[in-house]
Design brief:
This protein has 2 domains: 6-63 and 78-143; 189-235. It is built from 4 helices and no strands. The protein has helices spanning 6-62, 78-182, 185-219, 223-235. The chain is rod-shaped, with a radius of gyration of 60 Å. Residues 65-76 have low confidence and may be disordered.
């Protein structure tokens, strides 16, 4: 299993934090846009109420009864009706202006709705990326934990193996010491005596060979003939 680089974990953690901040920012922007859209709708409701009221007043003014001379009944009320007509005209003008403003605001609100929709799409996409990154981080953490357990198991196995070897060597050493203690104390002295006698025999043999070589050379006896005669005597 490949070792997980610490920089990969750090990079994913930083990416998660960035995505979380971006999602939070988009949510704030969406809330603000929804608040503005609600304000637009409330203003539209008020304007609709005002428009209905103006239409009602206009209808009432146009349907009042007239006298035979073509004028409205109640001559003392003509000034008041004229004043109301001016008010109605002003209200109609204001209503028209409000309608134009409303259409502009409505268009702006539609743009905001599209923006909210786009922001929601971005939020969903970022949430998917965040979920994917979190799964990757979790997988890396699990891999790290598994690797740690495997390394721990390998270390324990090596320690146990070395301990078994140490125990076997200790046991073998103890057996050798036990055998050593069981040997006769004079055994080593005898070995030393044998080694000394063997060394003396080798030296004496070397002196004998030099002496024979000297005699053979002095009396003209070939050394090979002497060695052949020596082997014949030994055979007899």
């Amino acid at each position: 299993m490949a070792l997980v680089g610490i920089h990969d974990c750090t990079r994913l953690h930083e990416e998660n934090e960035r995505l979380k901040k971006r999602i939070q920012q988009l949510r704030v922007e969406r809330t603000e846009l929804e608040r503005e859209l609600a304000g637009f709708r409330e203003r539209q409701r008020i304007e609709d109420i005002l428009e209905g009221h103006v239409r009602k007043r206009t209808s009432m003014t146009q349907t009042e009864p007239c006298d035979l001379d073509g004028g409205h009944l109640g001559g003392g009320r003509r000034g008041k009706r004229a004043s109301e007509s001016e008010v109605v005209e002003k209200l109609l003008t204001m209503q028209q202006q409000a309608r134009i403003l409303y259409e502009k605001e409505l268009k702006k609100g539609a743009d905001h709705v599209q923006m909210i929709t786009a922001q929601n799409g971005k939020i969903l996409e970022l949430q998917k990326e965040l979920t994917k990154a979190e799964r990757q981080v979790k997988q890396l953490e699990n891999d790290k934990l598994k690797l740690k357990k495997q390394l721990s198991a390998v270390s324990d196995y090596r320690v146990q193996s070395l301990q078994r070897k140490i125990d076997a060597l200790k046991e073998e050493n103890a057996n050798l010491r036990s055998e050593l203690r069981g040997l006769d104390s004079d055994f080593f002295n005898e070995i030393e005596d044998i080694k000394f006698a063997l060394d003396q025999a080798v030296r004496l043999n070397q002196r004998y060979e030099k002496c024979f070589q000297h005699l053979c050379s002095k009396y003209g006896i070939p050394l090979d003939s002497w060695q052949l005669g020596l082997r014949t005597d030994n055979a007899v």
